[in-house]
Amino acid sequence: MPDAIRILLLADSHLGIDLPSRPRVERRRRGHDFLANYALALAPALAGEVDLVVHAGDVFDRPTVVPTLAYQAFEPLRRIAERGVPVFIVPGNHERSRLPHVRFAAHPRIHIFDRPRTFTVHVRDHTIALAGFPYERHDVRHRFPELLDASEWNAATATHRLLCMHHCVEGATVGPSDYRFTTADDVVRHSDFPPGFAAVLTGHIHRHQVLTTDLAGRALRVPVLYPGSIERTALAEIGEVKGYMMVQLPVESGARPRWEFRALPARPMRRDELSADALAPDALDAAIRTLVAAAPSDCVLAIRVSGTLSDAHWQVMSSTHLRAFVPATMNVEVVPAGRVFTPYRRERTAPSVDQQLSL
Q1: Total structural domains within the chain
Q2: Closest by Cα among 118, 125, 202, 123 to 161
């Protein structure tokens, strides 16, 4: 018999990214990467290796999804629940704090934090209380104590207490420059976490990290666990390892939780820059082809072109031209300097020359 309560923690699966139901063009879709990693992350639960599953927010990439995608997201959770493993889901900001098509998640062992609340479950001879609330859009820094009180987190007797949410916490870092969240209105204070919790399980930050010290370097009384996103969603995540976490709550009283990060396959990403002022259209074409040839075959490649763009330059950068030589296994985007890179792009009307062009 395991000497700890075993929890599978994942977050920010963003299902539906670059997965239109009626695509305008045939090209490599990043949405399948997220679905594949979602299945890999949940595999230990389906194999009977855990006692609880927590999804800490942003199951979906948007608040409105087609029913077939919702079914794909919730069906493996239902199968996990059928095996006797309770599942807990925090609605995130991408879902606007409310999960779509919850009829597919209807099961007595699937619990959704659709409002501040606390669920109590029994694992072997131990009682686990999981408190939480959906993503709070307005000034969570000051509203956090109110939301926590509304969950009635300390009303039930429990062996362990866990806090489940989808928010930034002081000290979390993101991006190539290691930006650190500190005192903004959307950042939760460490000091507001009651000592009665064994751990905070949270999503929203896409970089895997565990916070064990405060901004001054002092030890936290409650560790904050971010599993990170299951795949790279933006170029700001170049080089970040993606995956999920296995968390263990020792059954002995007072023991600290233990955790393990398990990596998932992630598409390689590259960003390169070219200058239209230094390259005639045919030279720009040759340079783009060289960058494509040098990139891994499954790469998400973003190329930014600075300078003055002529009509001939735009033709070289067009998706129609790129599709003639870019491998079908790659995602390539060529955009003018100053445009925002999106390694995946929602389907929309055809872009003008003033919009980004992507393959």
Answers
A1: 2
A2: 118
Mean pLDDT by runs of 10 across the 359 residues of the chain is 89 94 77 96 98 98 96 98 98 98 98 98 94 97 98 93 98 95 97 95 98 96 97 94 97 85 97 96 98 96 96 95 93 84 41 29
Half-sphere exposure for 76 (CA within 13 Å, toward CB): 19
Q: How far is CA 86 from CA 13, 45, 54, 119, in A?
A: 19, 10, 9, 10
Rounded to whole angstroms, the Cα distance separating 284 from 74 reads: 46
Q: Report pLDDT for 349.
A: 31
Q: How far is CA 212 from the centre of its chain?
A: 21
In this structure, the number of other CB atoms found within 10 A of the CB of residue 237 comes to 21
Looking at residue 60, the DSSP 8-state letter turns out to be: B
Whether residue 310 sits in one domain with residue 198: no
DSSP output for 96-134 = TTS-S-GGGG--TTEEE-SSSEEEEEEETTEEEEEEE-P
- Residue 222 shares a structural domain with residue 299: no
CB atoms within 10 A of CB 86: 21
CATH assignment at residue 101: 3.60.21.10
Domain boundary among 248, 264, 280: 264
The reply to whether 256 and 283 lie within a common domain is no
Rg of the Cα trace of the chain?
Answer: 22
Beta bridge partners of 224: 200, 211
**Are 279 and 214 within one domain?**
no
- Sole residue written with tokens 């990467």: 33
